[in-house]
Amino acid sequence: MDITTPLRPAALHVLLALADGPLHGYGILQAVRERGGADARLGTGSLYRHLSTLIDAGLVAESTTPRASATDPRRGTHYRLTPRGQRVLAAERDRLASLVAAIDAWRASSPKSHA
Amino acid sequence: MNDRPPADSSPRLYRLLLRAYPADFRGRFAAAMEATFAADHARLATAPSRTRVAFWLATATEALTFGIRERWVARGRRHPVPVTRGASMLSTLWTDVRYAWRALRAAPVVSAIAIGSLALGIGANTALFSVFYQVLLKPLPFPEPDRLVFVWNTYPGINLPKAGVSIPDYVERKAQAPALADATLYTPRALTLVAGNRPELLHGLAVTPSFFSTLGRAPFIGRAFTDRDATVGGDRFAILTHDLWTSRFSGDRDLVGRTIQLDNEAYEVVGVLPADFRLPQEAAVLVPFSFTPEQMADAERGHEFSTMIGRLRPGATMAQLDDEMRAIVQRNIQRLPQGQAFVATTGFGGYAVPMRDELVGDVRTPLYVIQLCVLVVLLIACANVANLLLMRVTGRARELALRVTLGAPRSRLVRQLLTESLLLAGLGGAAGLAIGLVGVRLLLAASARQLPGSPDAALHPAVLAFTVGLSILTGLVFGLVPALAVVRGQTASLLRDEGTRTSAGRRTNRLRGALVAAETALAVVLLVGAGLLVKSFMRLQAVDPGFSPAGVLTARVALPETRYVDDATRALFWERLLDRVRAIPGVTATGMAQAVPFDDNVSSSSYSIVGYTPPPGTPPLHGRSTVVGGDYFRALHIPLVAGRFFTASDTAAGPHVAVIDDLLAQRYFAGRDPLGHQIQSHGDTFTIVGVAGTIRAEDLGQPAEKERIYYAYPQRALDAMTLVIKTDRDPRALVNAVRQAVMSVDPEQPIADVRTIDDWMSQSLEPRRAPMLLLAVFGAVALVLSAIGIYGVLAFSVAQRTRELGVRQALGAAPRAIFALVFRRGLAVVGLGLVVGLAAALAVSRYLQSLLVGVGARDIQVFAGVTALLIAVATLACYIPARRATRVDPVEALRDR
């Protein structure tokens, strides 16, 4: 995946959820849902679909040192951002920021068009 | 809340949904997804059911759409270059077919066995379906045939459930039953056709002009009968069947409008029936059925020599028609009070039967049962071939594994294997079609007279479609098993000992064994049935019918009323004919009779014995009656028990005499001498002058049930008689001489039904012979298939256990022990099938009882014989694989895998 390619909103949310550190699947679901918004309607199926693309693109990796959870062994698989994932996230942040800046600048230059 | 899935079922359900994903995706994520799903689902424990339903819907939709998408993507990954798309598809197919052909040739024995079993299975199905289709499925050649019904009279009170319809019954039902849109009445009428100097006795039908409007068909050239054609005295018109038109008049279109000679009178041909017109009974020519006023009068009621067909008004039901016929009977009773007692005691009425049911008769159930049996046989053939193919795929495990390693996609291998199966099925189907076409001829030859609608052996498109469809289906069914094994990557493990160690392997092995046991059991049941029928048939042929059928030729002569107008001219004809026949060299005795034994021409009448009053409450005496002339008794070697037979002195003018059979003598003259007593019948009184031996004339398998009275020809004159000619030579050699004798008396007089008594008897045995042949053939097919099945299962298990067998040998097991090891397994399967089959045969063989003569349904000889036969065949089938097991080279077996 090219770093300059815009990410899908849901994929961006998944990367964002992993920015704070490795999480298991349900953790990602919860984090995305907490941030809310229309993009956050994520189910298990779509989550793993995005995860599989992100993993194939090298942005996310299955955690090699999962935080062991004694209570529920099935939650053993964790996911973390790869360095490349962090770079993509940062690039996406920059891209969006510049997009927002551009929109702001445009709004400032033509105030009448905006109520 | 009870409507949510139980706590432990949701993970399973989800795991099921995950099957939508490709295997490698599942391998990577399934466990994590299940965990995530479980956590997510737990959240909903207290949610309203609507939310949960929405959740499950979303989950299922996601899983299915993404799963299938993943598969699509995964496919793209595996096929970076689309090697088999578009134009190259055909060439791939061609490659597959060529490769499949090579594979089949590489294992000629297995291939031949597989094709052979398929051909047997498909052939049996094709033959039977050909009959099944024509009798039960092919639409009747009339528009809206569902509205056509046969209408019968019935007298339940005197045990006469079905009788023909009299002319007044027909007239009033047609006019007074609103449920009938139209109706027709017809009656058989024998007619002598003279064309080109050759007289021929034709079956004719006299039909009312409404015949054509009721059935909804018209002649294909010419016209139908009009009401004017059916006027008494002016009804000399004829419509020919297509067969007669082509065979006797070479399809001459100009014949319509011309006249032909029927019974010495000129009939104008007004039309020819279409070739596919199916007459309700066999006939070559139709003439108008005209009614005189006397024939339509009440006095004619009870003269039920005609058959009625009605067409229901759209929407009307047969129940309505039955009700309306009841109402008509009630109205008649009010009009004719004297008939009330008769209707009350006999229960007289009318009833309707759908045309198809009437024509199909009682063969429907047997046909369904046999077709089902044959389909089961085919299923077993499929199981066999699947086993054989599985064995072969296993043998090719290394080749297949190599191809996968070299990058062949599994789907490609599956397609290849399916091509092989379909090629096998195609070859089996082609051979099966050939077997079927021969089979249907045999089937029809054996049972044509029992099948309605004279089915033919032609290949109907529906039958061809059935066979082709069946072949493809069988190819897919038995091809799927090895193909699935390849898909699951089991080819290698099948060969390793895991095949028998894993529980799944044991399960499939057990299933395979069970299949073979089942087919063995089926073969046993069929063979026992066939054995019982064969033994019964052999007994039957040894039955003494009470007369000697050897060397007897019969020929029917029917004198037309138009030329032989009175008894005197007829008597003269018979007298001269008998003289001429007697003069034929080789003839030792000549007689004639109203009917000969087993010719299906049964005549009975009521009679009374002077001085004998039947006990009150018993029906009047009723027995068979036969008018005989010449040396009838001597020609058939019917023994004389007492008194004398008829002589030339029993003339029409002399005292009327009768000969009774021994059965009558014992029934009503027990301990007394019947000679000299008198019998009243046919409005006349006859003195008993002799007692003849009892003969079986209708069913060789049953002792005669009805007593029989013989009358002397000149004292009761008839216009149709059958010559009975005894010779010490081959009776068939006399046919021409008999024809010439008839010609010499009257050149325009045809003869019919020229055949030996043996022919008649053989024909009467047909209802017994046909099921015997069917069961014997299907039993043989089932036996062959089960032998193949036993062989297949054992050979497969030997291939599977090669390593184990090798180890055993290496450890010093004697070849004999190894042989016994394999043999035992085969015999266990066969033994199970044998026991189940014998038990089933014991349970069902009593359904054959009505067909058995002189053999019990549990005849020990038959059961033992079948057991011995089966064990012999099974031993042979077990021998080959067991022998192969002893030849396993331990070094090879151990090094190899």
What topology emerges from the helices and strands here?
The complex is a heterodimer of chains A (115) and B (897).
Chain A: H1 9-18, E1 23-24, H2 25-35, H3 44-56, E2 60-62, E3 78-81, H4 83-109
Antiparallel strand pairs in A: 1-3, 2-3
Chain B: H1 9-18, H2 23-42, H3 49-78, H4 88-106, H5 108-137, E1 148-155, E2 160-163, H6 167-176, E3 180-195, E4 198-207, H7 210-215, E5 221-222, E6 237-240, H8 242-249, E7 259-262, E8 265-272, E9 285-288, E10 307-312, H9 318-335, H10 340-346, E11 349-354, H11 355-360, H12 364-395, H13 397-405, H14 410-447, H15 461-487, H16 491-495, H17 498-501, H18 503-541, E12 552-558, H19 567-582, E13 587-593, E14 604-606, E15 608-609, E16 622-630, H20 632-636, E17 640-643, E18 657-661, H21 662-668, E19 678-681, E20 684-692, E21 708-712, E22 720-727, H22 735-745, E23 752-756, H23 757-764, H24 766-800, H25 802-810, H26 815-844, H27 860-886, H28 890-896
Parallel strand pairs in B: 4-9, 6-8, 16-21, 18-20
Antiparallel strand pairs in B: 1-2, 1-10, 1-11, 3-4, 3-7, 3-10, 5-8, 6-9, 7-8, 12-22, 12-23, 13-16, 13-22, 14-16, 15-19, 17-20, 18-21, 19-20
Helix pairs in contact in B: 1-2, 4-14, 5-12, 5-14, 5-15, 5-24, 12-15, 12-18, 12-24, 14-15, 18-24, 18-26, 18-27, 19-22, 24-26, 24-27, 25-28, 26-27
Which regions of chain B are unreliable across 5 or more consecutive residues at pLDDT < 50?
A: 1-6, 79-87, 494-502
> On the 0-100 scale, what is the average pLDDT of chain A?
75
Major sheet of chain A: order of its strands? 1-3-2
Largest two-chain interface: A-B, 17 and 21 residues
As a percent range, the share of strand residues of chain B is 15-25%
CA-atom Rg of chain A in angstroms = 17 Å
| Helix count, DSSP H or I runs of 4 or more residues of chain A | 4
Distance between the termini of chain A: 39 Å
- Helix-strand makeup class of chain B: alpha+beta
Proportion of residues in extended strands of chain A: 5-15%
Compute the CA-based radius of gyration of chain B: 37 Å
Average pLDDT level of chain B? 84
Quaternary structure annotation: heterodimer
Q: Give the biggest sheet of chain A.
A: 3 strands, antiparallel
As residue ranges, the low-confidence spans of chain A are none
Q: Summarize the biggest pleated sheet of chain B.
A: 12 strands, mixed
Number of helices of chain B: 28
How many E-type strands of chain B? Answer: 23
Question: How far apart lie the N and C ends of chain B?
Answer: 57 Å
What characteristic shape of chain A results from the CA principal axes? Answer: elongated
Helix content of chain B: 40-55%
